[in-house]
Amino acid sequence: MIQLPLDLRCRPSFARSDFLSADRNAAAVEQIEGWPSWPSAALVLHGPASCGKTHLAHLWCARASANLLAGETLTPAMLPRILAEGQCRVAIDDGHRASERALLHLYNSCVERQGSLLITAPQPPGLWEIALGDLRSRLRATPAVAIEAPDDALLGAVLVKHFADRQLPVAPGLIVYLLRRIGRSFADAATVAAHLDAAALSSGGPITIPLARKVLAAPEYQSLSLRNDSAVT
């Protein structure tokens, strides 16, 4: 059995040239690149884990000179600092995790100041559990665009990007081998790339099909793969 190191971190590139455009995310890309001609002050971008929402949020922030915040860090205490920066242009990654009161205040401020607010989340606001009625009504009236689950072509390209982000050369035919054996989600691609990275680091060798076979059979990988499957909505 392969022993996998616990540190699976990497530094992904958020450059425009590294974003994988495809039919499944074309509508989202069009909205991001269509700013500032949005029909509303806010836009919700939703899709499954690891589908590129954060990458698009980074691209929009570069385009709009906006601030990017993780949803769990958005609290009422942060608002004065955010709103003191002049133009109210903010992206909230995983907005469903933000403080409802803070998000409502930020939403209203962006509207009042003719600013822009981009919110990413796994699901559209209509499926969120929102206690504040005012926030619920605003978000459900906000234009929303989806990134759809990947087809084989996009999933293969996502795998290539994950390995490139980790500066890992892969054996010929490895991508095809993996596509036939992993789950059909962006999260599965991220999981298998991380585990192969860790296994190659542990073994001191390259990533090959025999190594991939061992990783896919490892209980550590299978448990995470099942977790990814259960998280798909």
Molecular structure report:
The protein has 233 residues and is of the alpha/beta class. It folds into two domains: 23-146, P-loop containing nucleotide triphosphate hydrolases (Rossmann fold); 152-231, Helicase, Ruva Protein, domain 3, CATH 1.10.8. It has ten helices and five strands; from the N terminus they run αβαβαβαβαβααααα. Strands 2-3-4-1-5 form a five-stranded parallel β-sheet, sandwiched between helices. Helix 4 links the parallel strand 3 and strand 4. Helix 6 runs parallel beside helix 8 and helix 8 packs across helix 9. The radius of gyration is 19 Å and the shape is elongated.
Short description:
By secondary structure, the chain is of the alpha/beta class. It has helices spanning 26-34, 53-64, 79-83, 100-112, 133-140, 152-165, 174-179, 186-203, 209-217, 219-231, and strands at 42-46, 67-70, 89-93, 116-121, 144-146.
The separation of the N and C termini measures 32 Å
Shape category: elongated
CATH-level-2 architecture of the largest domain: 3-Layer(aba) Sandwich
Strand content: 5-15%
Total count of domains? 2
Q: Name the helicity range.
A: 40-55%
* Mean pLDDT reading: 87
Features:
elongated, five-stranded parallel beta sheet, Helicase, Ruva Protein, domain 3, disordered C terminus, Rossmann fold, alpha/beta, 2 domains, disordered N terminus, 233 residues
Q: What layout of secondary structure does this protein have?
A:
Blueprint: H1 26-34, E1 42-46, H2 53-64, E2 67-70, H3 79-83, E3 89-93, H4 100-112, E4 116-121, H5 133-140, E5 144-146, H6 152-165, H7 174-179, H8 186-203, H9 209-217, H10 219-231
Parallel strand pairs: 1-4, 1-5, 2-3, 3-4
Helix pairs in contact: 1-2, 6-8, 8-9, 8-10
